[in-house]
Amino acid sequence: EDKVVQSPLSLVVHEGDTVTLNCSYEVTNFRSLLWYKQEKKAPTFLFMLTSSGIEKKSGRLSSILDKKELFSILNITATQTGDSAVYLCAVGKGGGSNYKLTFGKGTLLTVNP
Amino acid sequence: DGGITQSPKYLFRKEGQNVTLSCEQNLNHDAMYWYRQDPGQGLRLIYYSQIVNDFQKGDIAEGYSVSREKKESFPLTVTSAQKNPTAFYLCASNPRRELGLTDTQYFGPGTRLTVL
After folding, report:
1. What is the dihedral of CA A44, A98, B87, B9, to 10 degrees?
2. To bridge A104 with a disulfide, which of A6, A37, B10, B97 should be the other Cys (CB 3.0-4.6 Å)?
3. Chain B contact for A58, CB < 8 A?
4. B12-21, B42-51, B88-97: range with lowest mean pLDDT
5. Taken in order A101, A103, A109, B2, is the CA torsion positive or negative?
6. Could you tell me how many helices (H) and strands (E) chain A has, helices first?
7. Other beta carbons within 10 Å of B86
């Protein structure tokens, strides 16, 4: 059975702190790993990773994938209260008509002023 | 504006009733998905469709049905057979992967269904 495990499940930090969110997976026919941010409603796309060791960066957020050890991390530096959200990790598998994402349970990040 | 719309935003249903959730997209995406999210849980896949008139069961399809008669529309019916339907339902879409396009799924704003 496919598994996507995120840790920690919740995290409380102060503004300015740096956080690292973890995502490990056991998925057959791996294609890609995606990170989403979910505030009140719809998840919004952050990164998609397909190759090991190549860091994706967007402002204070960055992410990297290790396909040998089957995990990814999402880093957020100099956190702000607006970073408070649930961060979801998803792994894409299969191809053609069978392509789909399997999601982890998410990490609830709370950034206090 | 291009995007994915879901309606209604909130829906209340009595036990034993079927209810249909709407999902429409004008992104010209071939693939569409339905997910269910419960408190403290990630998204679980209900049904997905990569092309018109074809769809596949996801991980938790029991008690749900879908249709895909048009590329833009992928409605989800929650039937009375679904034992615990109260949840947040999200629809998503993405271009077909075999066309060399992104794996990224884009989400609608969701429908919160409450069974009374």
Report:
1. 60
2. A6
3. no
4. B88-97
5. positive
6. 0, 11
7. 14
Place of tokens 């505030």: A39
Alpha-carbon gap, residue A26 to A69, rounded angstroms: 10
Q: ∠ at Cα A92 (A45, A12), nearest 5°?
A: 50
Inspect the interface and report whether the beta carbons of A97 and B109 lie closer than 8 Å.
Answer: no
B9, B34, B101, B103, best to mutate vs chain A, most A CBs in 10 Å: B103
Q: Does B45 touch chain A (CB under 8 A)?
A: yes
- Look at residue B94 in the predicted model and tell me its pLDDT: 86
Q: What is the pLDDT of residue A89?
A: 97
Which amino acid appears at position B18 of this protein?
A: N
What distance separates the 2 farthest-apart alpha carbons in chain B? 45
pLDDT of residue A79: 98
> Measuring CA to CA, how many Å separate A29 from each of A25, A92, B46?
12, 9, 20
Percent of chain A with pLDDT over 90: 76
Distance from C-alpha of A10 to C-alpha of A87, rounded to nearest angstrom = 10
* Per-residue pLDDT, B101: 54
Distance CA B94, CA B102 (A): 7
Q: What pLDDT does A35 receive? A: 96
Please report residues of A whose CB lies closer than 8 A to that of B5.
Answer: none
Distance between CA atoms of residues A95 and A32, nearest Å? 11
